[in-house]
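Sanity check. The docking grid for MIG depends on where the pocket ends up, so I'm generating a full predicted complex first rather than guessing from homology. Inputs follow.
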Amino acid sequence: MIYKYVFGKPIETGAFVMEIQKNEQEPKWMRLTKTEAGILLSCHMDESDVVYGLGEQVRGMNKRGFTYVSDALDDPDHTEDRHSLYGSHNFLILNRQEQPSFGVFVDDPGRVAFDVGETKLDQMAISAGSDCVIYFIEGESLKDIAKQFRKLIGRSYIAPKWAFGYQQSRWGYVNEQDVREVVSGHRERGIPLDAVYLDIDYMENYKDFTVDPEKFPDFAGLACEMKDQGIHLVPIIDAGVKIEEGYSIYEEGVEKGYFCKDEDGKEFVGAVWPGKVHFPDVLNAKAREWFGGKYRWLMEQGIDGFWNDMNEPAIFYSEKRMQEAMEEVLSMKGKNMDLHAFFHMKDIMLGLTNSPEDYKSFYHDMDGVRVRHDRVHNIYGYNMTKAAAEAFEKISPNQRTLLFSRSSYIGMHRYGGIWTGDNRSWWSHLLLSIQQMPALNMCGILYTGSDLGGFGSDATEDLMMRWMQFGVFTPLMRNHATLGTRRQEVYQFENQEGFRNIIRIRYGLLPYLYSEYMKAALCDEMYFRPLAFDYPKDAHAAKVEDQVMVGESIMAAPVYTQNATGRYVYLPEDMLLVRMKSLKEKTCKRLEKGHHYVDAALDEMIFFVKKGHALPLAVLDNNLKSTADMKDVSYEWICFGDGPVEYVFYEDDGISKNYTPQEKWKKVTIEG
Ligand code: MIG
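Predicted complex below; grid placement will be based on this.
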């Protein structure tokens, strides 16, 4: 059951697709108070209660013990003390032992804070604005609550099948030679690869929807040459549009009034990579249509995938506040400064970036209604992505286009996926990425993954290897890193054969992973789940923070610590341990319910198969280059059952959008 409460005059976010009757009775799940600041919800948590959800946030699967704030922020330091990252996913489930569990979703595009037992260990308090919609969801189980929520918010985005292949990215591939080198680096070593990403350097002076003609003299030709090799080029699009005379996007946007305005009705000026920019007002339907239409030009060059960046929107500084800051700093010149003044001066400059003041100083024209940005801050990236997705519907209605975004809000999950932003080459961030996956899935975001190997800092070979072993399971399996870090394409490391094997295991598992993704998307289920979702009666399962269910058959238990040659694993029931160094070197062993220490050499991945379940493993050609070479593969099976076991496949061409016909599902019975 879903109960809906409406407060004030909420802004329509488009988060949900199902209309539900408003409820007038007092909500029974949490205490509701109306304060000056807005709506406050609070409830008691028993010691054994567990809180799941909130999507892209730091810390564990169980969110208890900290305050998480939905306030989209470009922050490359995903440390434990961070309250906000790029996305705002205001849905959580309180899993209770003594009383019925429930889910709560706060549909408010402004700032929402979730104090999940930080102020008081046994209290949860959620504070939202005065104008919002709040849903409470009751159900038979955690899975059921999550599923009802997903029905409410609509079907998750489905990526083309090639986007389930291995993908390589790096900020710093600047020209076509760099792209060709990356491709041949993989091809020469027989490492499968489906996509190469173009970061901001491909553009001319960071101008959206341009390609630097010197670095890419024949862009369409390159895209075509790449397609022939089974490679998709995926360019980045940034939110800010460069202010430059003669640049058509800028000129058109100004002429049509499609950029966000300041208080005086002039185009708001921020600075991001292109220098000074205006932000397209993607909350305005016409502006959204206009901006989305601009993707067409790249699609005509043969592009069929995009990543939308900097759409919190990130603002390095705004013109106006920079001026004020300069004046203040200059006024200090020649004065005898004490240390307080010195630190204050430093803070003036540092405070310019992503300043809440800036977010309060520009406006959207929401189809006739002027809305200050901070009230709708968390749906900006969502609407930039919606702009693109709506355009793709027109430009390429019968084909899926790869699309994912950095900033997001629930509702955007119907239009694209996300990547988890600028993590670091830290072991703790490998664990964080494992923990983020189920939380994101709960909020509808299925097409997702982290920057494998870590974006910032230098990746070491062992970290890269372990991260890849987890990346095998994430729908988005992309290796990405920032400028100036150690090169981390897998062939840069010594054990190239080991990396090749792990990536080939991904392709071997693809029929399973893709089938499970499609089941999750089409049936509103979670592809990644915390153990408690599958084993609700097992009190220990709810305590496990570093294992995750992947589809119906697999429990992943990745090694995520430095120098470890194995790990402790908890099995909620008897399971089949699968160890793989490669598709050929594989062993299976039955393990009993309970705690185990399982060895796993650095180049060896381990995972578990649930009882009564099976999974197909594609038999791959030794020269397999990309998913394009996977038509008509045959399968072998990994199966754990005492008798025959059934598995249901989803098979389609991986590109068209006609998802539902019954013949795409195929039931196979495997003799256990
Ligand atoms: O300010 O485009 O998260 O993936 O490589 C940094 C450069 C801008 C942030 C993205 C990252 C990307 C980088 N971008």
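Relevant for the grid: The mean pLDDT is 97.
Also worth noting: The chain has 15 helices and 39 strands.
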